[in-house]
Design goal:
Largest sheet: 12 strands, mixed
Strand order of the largest sheet: 4-6-5-7-8-10-12-13-14-17-18-19
Radius of gyration: 29 Å
Helix content: 25-40%
Strand content: 15-25%
Protein name: F-box domain-containing protein
Shape: elongated
Oligomer: single chain
InterPro entries: F-box-like_dom_sf, F-box_dom, LRR_dom_sf
Length: about 475
């Protein structure tokens, strides 16, 4: 971009100095669109009158041009913040020219560091700029979707919170109601290189099976998101049996990391983890005192996970129940992570949804004993045993006939889908007794609002017919 040199001429009857300030502002604004740095580096240095006009004219500063091929990232971030301040209260336009895709999020972070409503337009150029998806109304962006080593399809997956193999292929044709910024990166940026991101919804996905976002990098990034209310992370649970030299190895040994600091997320209300072997580390290293909804999806794996740095914590011993499991290692990881989260944060969890995700019987007991505000529990494709379902039955406070108690006393919605090991007799007995106690004793909660039992092979029509009248006015769905 050519440099512009101006001189303040001697005053004559037709001197530029005689032009009204409004005309000079229009000229300086035009110059700023030729050279984005001209308000500070050129016009303001000509003479004091021009400097005064420039520094008091927001319109001169409303184009924010950032070029990482010519300037340092840190200097450009400072530039962006300064131009945003000087252009107040006008809307501003952003033009970004990047050397590589990882520069995009770094350069945009200043604009995400405050609830901006003045961001009017966005233009992006550079050799690797296909990795961005931005709605037109950029000033009202509330959601950030990051695809690690992805393309347009994986950005769309991150935006919607579902994997690409589930049908998302092209972000260009998406009709997304939320104002979303989607960015592809080679790796999550260090929090020391970005400004705090004050968006409330963030989705992160590993785009390819060979991509592995370390928990340390994920947790470090979350420290830069103090206003986070909803967070989704999608990874992969594929076991890799060859190293770079083609030798056999358990590549998941790379999951063993040093003990990580705890990330405080005071506003997080919704957390979704999908297809990751880092469940225990993530759940164990976040403090979420307002978390109300937790969704755990496709966390079960049939291979052993490596030892965890927190092994030896209370509850980490083998499960005494001896219940069958097709995913014992991930069951332990999920259960121990959830235990640590509950113990640290005591979250007011209202919804717990587990899809192809399991825990040991002892972990279910701990969870049910501590989630006093849980209203909805759904579990899909689980090895759920009779011992677990019977935890929902009423019990007495002491060995005698003391006060009748209920675990998760506010539970009003129960969904069991494709739980093929739990028996119809255990479901019928447990839910019948619970419904009776909920009605007659009012154990801190209400009655069932919905019960769904679908694809549970050992739950027969006779069980459904017997259970229906005992659930009162609850919506009851079952199949055989």
């Amino acid at each position: 971009m050519p440099r512009i040199y101006l001189e303040c001429p001697a005053r004559t009857p037709t001197s530029i100095q005689d032009l009204p300030s409004e005309v000079l502002i229009e000229i300086f604004t035009y110059l700023a669109h030729i050279d984005g740095l001209s308000p500070l580096t050129t016009v303001a240095s000509v003479c004091q009158p021009w400097r005064s006009i420039v520094f008091n004219a927001p319109s001169v500063w409303r184009l924010i041009a950032l070029d990482s091929r010519a300037h340092d990232i840190g200097a450009l971030q400072t530039h962006a913040l300064y131009w945003m301040t000087k252009s107040e209260p006008l809307e501003f336009d952003v033009e970004v020219n990047v050397a590589e895709r990882d520069d995009i999020l770094l350069l945009l972070s200043p604009f995400l560091s405050q609830p901006q409503k003045r961001w009017r337009s966005f233009a992006l150029t550079g050799p690797d700029t296909h990795g961005v998806y931005l709605l037109q109304n950029v000033g009202r962006t509330t959601k950030l979707a990051i695809s690690v080593r992805g393309d347009s399809g994986s950005i769309a997956s991150a935006i919607l919170g579902i994997p690409e193999e589930d049908g998302v292929k092209d972000s260009v044709n998406l009709d997304i109601s939320q104002n979303t910024l989607g960015v592809a990166v080679n790796a999550l940026p260090s929090p020391s290189r970005i400004h705090p991101i004050y968006l409330t919804i963030i989705h992160i996905c590993d785009a390819l099976p060979e991509v592995y976002t370390k928990p340390s990098a994920l947790l470090a990034f979350l420290t830069a998101c103090p206003n986070l209310q909803q967070f989704v992370f999608m990874g992969w649970t594929l076991r890799r049996d060859k190293d770079e030299d083609g030798d056999d190895q358990d590549d998941h040994q790379t999951f063993v990391e040093e003990k990580l600091p705890v990330v405080y997320l005071p506003h997080l209300q919704v957390l979704r983890l999908r297809s990751t072997c880092s469940t225990r580390t993530i759940l164990s290293r976040i403090h979420t005192p307002t978390l109300s909804e937790l969704y755990l999806t496709y966390l079960n794996v049939d291979f052993p996970l490596p030892p965890h740095v927190d092994e030896g914590d209370e509850g980490d011993s083998d499960d005494e129940s001896g219940d069958f499991s097709r995913s014992p290692s991930s069951d332990r990881a999920t259960g121990m992570g959830l235990r640590k989260l509950i113990k640290r944060s005591n979250p007011p969890l209202r919804v717990l949804d587990m899809d192809c995700s399991d825990m040991r019987t002892k972990d279910f007991r701990y969870v049910f004993d501590h989630l006093h505000k849980l209203e909805e529990f759904s579990i899909v494709a689980s090895d759920l045993s009779d011992n677990v379902i019977r935890l929902l039955a009423p019990y007495y406070e002491s060995s005698g006939r003391g006060t009748v108690k209920l675990r998760v006393p506010r539970l009003g919605v129960l969904r069991l889908f494709d739980c093929i090991r739990v028996s119809g007799d255990a479901i019928l007995e447990t839910l019948s007794r619970r419904a009776e106690v909920m009605v007659n004793y009012h154990c801190g909660g209400g009655t069932f609002r919905e019960v769904s039992i679908m694809g549970c092979e050992r739950f027969a029509q006779i069980h459904g017919q017997a259970l229906r009248p005992r659930l009162g006015g609850a919506v009851f769905r079952y199949d055989i």
